[in-house]
Amino acid sequence: MTLLQAFKDNAKIAWGIVGGMLLVLAGSTALLAKTAELRYERDINRIVFNDNWELLEDITRKLGIVNDSLDGALSGGPERPANSPYLVVSIEDRRLWYKQGDSTLFTTQVAVGSGKTLIKHGSREEYKFDTPRGRLVVQSKEATPIWVPPDWHYLEQAKKRGLGVVQLQRGQSVPGPDGSEITVVGSDVVRRYPDGRVAPFEAGEEREIIANGNMIIPPFGTNQRKFKGVLGTHRLNLGDGYALHGTNKPESIGQAVSHGCVRLRNEDIDYLFSIVPVGTPVFIY
After folding, report:
1. Which of 41, 89, 175, 191 is 20 to 30 Å from 112 by CA-CA measure?
2. What is the pTM of this model?
3. Residue 110 near residue 252, CB atoms below 8 Å
4. Is 261 designated active site?
């Protein structure tokens, strides 16, 4: 064997050893990475189980994996309040935080806008059911709020049930199939019978007035256009018809199903109502 051949053989052995060491190192690195991943998942599960969302936010911020983050929302808008509490709603996470500085005073799941569009039949008019993004303010607070359904409620319900729509105006009447007529007397939509008797309708959500295959839209200001219980126990008004409010459908919490408002469980809005003052900033992102 020549000196050159011996050198080549030794080089092959050396590279073989180096290659083996690299494989071992790669395997060890993968094992360590897998172990770290399992530990991370375990820790996250513990955080979620214990409802320690503030710690979870801190971890994701440090790892640089925050998506649709609070910091991003606040940095892109007006300056975060220094000492006063403020509300934050994440549409993507369907979660609300009541914060002061970097501390979370309260957090809970919410329901947000569905994002669907309703087009009025025979018209170019459309309604988009989005929760608005940006900086809003708690303008007023209400206990046992009454919902005055907009026109889109009746259009949506009529479409679901395959009905037409009739907008009832004061001074007008809609004939009934039994010789009666539907009209407005004072603050009530009533059925007036041929003998002069009148009977006010008992209307509400899923108890709308229907006649001759049409859903009747009562005039604003009538009792039949005031629904109780739909908005839960309390409401924090944000302006332009939007609000944080309770619900009579707690199963909807955590979903994108509202018509733009932010829904909370009644026990959650009860608590916020007691601690959130009028004028509190609300950041929705």
Report:
1. 41
2. 0.70
3. no
4. yes
